[in-house]
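Tip: read the tokens left to right.
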């Protein structure tokens, strides 16, 4: 039903009027500066006039005076008597800001707030009048101004205006000024003011019901759960149909048996008295067949309506979910409406010219995501104007228009929300970026020279990193893009950069459509289900355990694009007891093109739409876990925090010991300590290594060269082989190649310990198949033992 405006006080009505007209005024002023056509002025005059008239009704003289001053300037501009300059726009926007601050207050606070704003309002009014007076007198039609003032005076309550009519259910209306008679409907036309009749608004016709965010969130949870519960019926219907096929098959078998028995005959004749005792004659078979037919008919009468119910419930639950989800959605415009003013003011501050293009304003966005996007957008827009756009002189020198363009565009793409913040500036200077990285000691010049553009862009998001040459109020402190990336990741989104020299830079945000329901892959870890959001998964594959390569104790897999990705057991990340993985190990690859890791799991259970249930706040931040949900059978499942998981992997790679996939087999179950073969032609080195390993608890066997070492390796089962490089008869590299090409030995880890510590020597050892390369020049007792433990575990 339509809202009863009689329930509102005059101040509440004025607040509604102010909110409606202020936003239209601010957007129109920014647009007017970029396109100062006279027809764009009329809607602004109408907004100022409405505010002035409403302020007279509620007796707010300061607001009346300020709005009237704005109206006078705009009227002169429309008549061609005044050419609006940047000074005019600054004063008009400052006046609009005062009304904006009032619009955000509760109605009861308006009078006191306006008293506090009175000095600034008076100063702005005088400034606007001064700017107007500066216009040549013959160019300003005084008669028209007087008529407009008279129109404003007509709004003063008098005998002909029944104030009680404002309490009868219709909002107050204010007659337009005679000068405001130009055609309506221009592009800059504001939204209908709050003083319009309720029947003029589609929303009012449908009725408005106010719900708290908490109630809406509960409705969203219930609707999502309804959608999940509806998915229970299709598998049941499938099972019932399978049972019906079994009944039909059983009925056919009984029919075949009856065909072999004449009337009155008994199954099995005289020889099988057991059948006779069971009474399985023709009559018995007929009775069984009749029962089967009755069950089949009853089954048909049940399964068909149940199937129809399942389809209807699926349709209705999907519609309910979409409708409740739509109630959470707000147009992208709500977050972006004040950004044109932000870009305009910032460009003025920096001595630049800039305009903001908004695209996809009606794209629906989840209100929770919309609330969190404002701060990242402000950072990105400030970055675009400050770092992206050149000065007017620089743009003119390269043939660009003086005014730069910044674009903020939103759209739905493949089930996600994509937002682009793009400028037409100079683009990112990679040479300057490389120098900034090197100057801050983040990488040496040789390394930065080898980095491609995407790798260099990653440094832009580091805390404290900035390419600005000096610190200002706008930039140079290194605070901004790191905050943006953190906020985007908090809502499960991703951020990447595209830049073309001389043409501009774009920041692309890819965000989930809603935070209430997540599409996830459910996997099995330690015999329990866990969910991983699909938006963070780059690919899923199965790899035989024999196809997992090893390098320095860390396993990896080579993808079909040639990239290598490290493999980590998910159970170890979650501090869960390990279990045997299948021969074909399911791998879930997380991350982006720059940083990816493969999580080994026990099984892939398929994709699910899960209703997100936040964890109790008393639990604090649970490591690697973002939220919880329920599967269709009612069992709980934890939704993993992909970013936290990736951080845990990096921490484990740096400080922990990775549990190798497949290592928990017979080596760990063998009786006695783990066996190590040490191969070195130096008696001293060989004996030092033997004693170190033996003292730690390993069983150690030694060999004096590669040939003897290979024979020992083939004659005994070893968990680890430690070898030197330079040895007679067979070098350590030749020994390593022989071991890695022998089907019976290739899974045995090989550690090379050598005095050769150049990069070329190290790479040669790893290329031969070594799992670890330890230089003797930096040899320490603990280094050898740590490497052994990394490769095969403690004894």
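Filled-in amino acids:
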């Amino acid at each position: 039903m339509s809202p009863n405006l009689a329930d509102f006080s005059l101040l509440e009505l004025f607040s509604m009027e102010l909110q409606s007209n202020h936003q239209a005024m601010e957007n129109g002023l920014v647009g007017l500066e970029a396109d100062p056509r006279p027809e764009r002025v009329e809607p602004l005059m109408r907004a100022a006039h409405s505010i002035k008239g409403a302020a007279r009704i509620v007796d707010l003289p300061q607001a009346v005076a300020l709005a009237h001053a704005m109206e006078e300037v705009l009227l002169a501009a429309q008549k061609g008597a005044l050419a609006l300059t940047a000074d005019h726009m600054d004063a008009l926007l400052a006046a609009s800001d005062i009304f904006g601050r009032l619009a955000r207050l509760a109605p009861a606070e308006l009078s006191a707030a306006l008293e506090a704003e009175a000095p600034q309002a008076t100063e702005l009014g005088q400034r606007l009048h001064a700017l107007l007076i500066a216009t040549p007198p013959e160019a300003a039609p005084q008669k028209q101004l007087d008529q407009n003032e008279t129109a404003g005076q007509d709004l003063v309550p008098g005998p002909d205006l029944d104030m009680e009519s404002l309490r009868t259910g219709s909002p107050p209306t204010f007659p337009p000024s005679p000068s405001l008679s130009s055609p309506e409907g221009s592009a800059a036309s504001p939204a209908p003011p709050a003083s319009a009749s309720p029947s003029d608004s589609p929303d009012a016709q449908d009725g408005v019901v106010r719900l708290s965010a908490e109630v809406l969130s509960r409705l969203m949870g219930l609707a999502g759960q309804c959608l999940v519960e509806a998915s229970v019926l299709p598998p049941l219907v499938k099972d019932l149909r399978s049972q019906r096929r079994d009944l039909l098959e059983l009925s056919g078998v009984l029919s075949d048996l009856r065909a072999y028995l004449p009337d009155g005959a008994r199954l099995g004749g005289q020889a099988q008295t057991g059948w006779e005792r069971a009474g399985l004659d023709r009559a018995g078979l007929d009775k069984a067949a009749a029962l089967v037919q009755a069950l089949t008919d009853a089954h048909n009468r049940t399964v068909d309506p149940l199937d129809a119910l399942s389809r209807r419930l699926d349709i209705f639950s999907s519609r309910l979910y979409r409708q409740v989800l739509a109630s959470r959605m707000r147009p992208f415009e709500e977050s972006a409406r004040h950004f044109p003013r932000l870009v305009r003011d910032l460009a003025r501050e920096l001595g630049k010219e800039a305009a903001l293009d908004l695209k996809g304003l009606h794209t629906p966005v989840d209100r929770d995501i919309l609330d969190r996007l404002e701060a990242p957008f402000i950072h990105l827009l400030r970055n675009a104007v400050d770092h992206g756009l050149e000065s007017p002189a620089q743009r003119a020198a390269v043939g660009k228009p003086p005014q730069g363009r910044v674009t903020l565009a939103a759209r739905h793409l493949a089930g996600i929300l994509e937002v682009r913040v793009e400028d037409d500036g100079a683009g990112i200077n990679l040479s300057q970026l490389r120098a900034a990285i090197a100057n801050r000691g983040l990488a040496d010049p040789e390394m930065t020279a080898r980095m491609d553009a995407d790798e260099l862009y990653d440094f832009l998001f580091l805390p404290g990193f900035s390419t600005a040459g000096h610190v200002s109020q706008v930039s140079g402190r290194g605070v901004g893009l790191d905050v943006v990336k953190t906020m985007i990741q908090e809502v499960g989104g991703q951020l990447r950069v595209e830049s073309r020299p001389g043409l501009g830079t774009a920041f692309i945000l890819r965000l989930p459509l809603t935070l209430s329901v997540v599409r996830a892959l459910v996997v099995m870890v330690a015999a329990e289900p866990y969910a991983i959001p699909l938006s963070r998964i780059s690919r899923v594959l199965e790899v035989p355990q024999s196809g997992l390569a090893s390098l320095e104790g860390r396993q990896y897999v080579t993808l079909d694009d040639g990239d290598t990705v490290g493999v980590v057991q998910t159970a170890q990340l979650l501090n869960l007891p390990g279990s045997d993985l299948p021969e074909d190990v399911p791998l879930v690859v997380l991350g982006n093109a720059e940083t990816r890791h493969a999580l080994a799991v026990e099984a892939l259970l398929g994709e699910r739409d899960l209703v997100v249930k936040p964890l109790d706040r008393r639990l604090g931040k649970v490591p690697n876990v973002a939220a919880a949900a329920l599967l269709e059978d009612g069992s709980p499942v934890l939704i993993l925090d992909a970013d936290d998981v990736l951080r845990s992997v990096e921490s484990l790679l740096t400080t922990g010991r990775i549990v190798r996939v497949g290592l928990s087999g017979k080596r760990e179950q063998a009786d006695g300590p783990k066996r190590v073969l040490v191969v070195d032609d130096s008696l001293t080195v060989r004996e030092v290594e033997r004693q170190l390993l033996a003292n730690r608890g390993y069983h150690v066997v030694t060999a004096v060269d590669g040939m003897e070492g290979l024979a020992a390796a083939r004659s005994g089962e070893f968990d680890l082989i430690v070898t030197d490089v330079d040895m007679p008869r067979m070098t350590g590299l030749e020994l390593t190649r022989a071991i890695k090409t022998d089907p019976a030995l290739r899974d045995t880890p090989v550690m090379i310990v050598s005095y050769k510590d150049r990069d070329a020597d190290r790479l040669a050892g790893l290329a031969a198949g070594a799992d670890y390369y330890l230089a003797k020049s930096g040899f320490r007792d603990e280094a050898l033992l740590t490497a052994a433990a990394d490769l095969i575990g403690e004894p």
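The longest strand covers residues 404-413. The CA atoms of residues 706 and 730 lie 5 Å apart.
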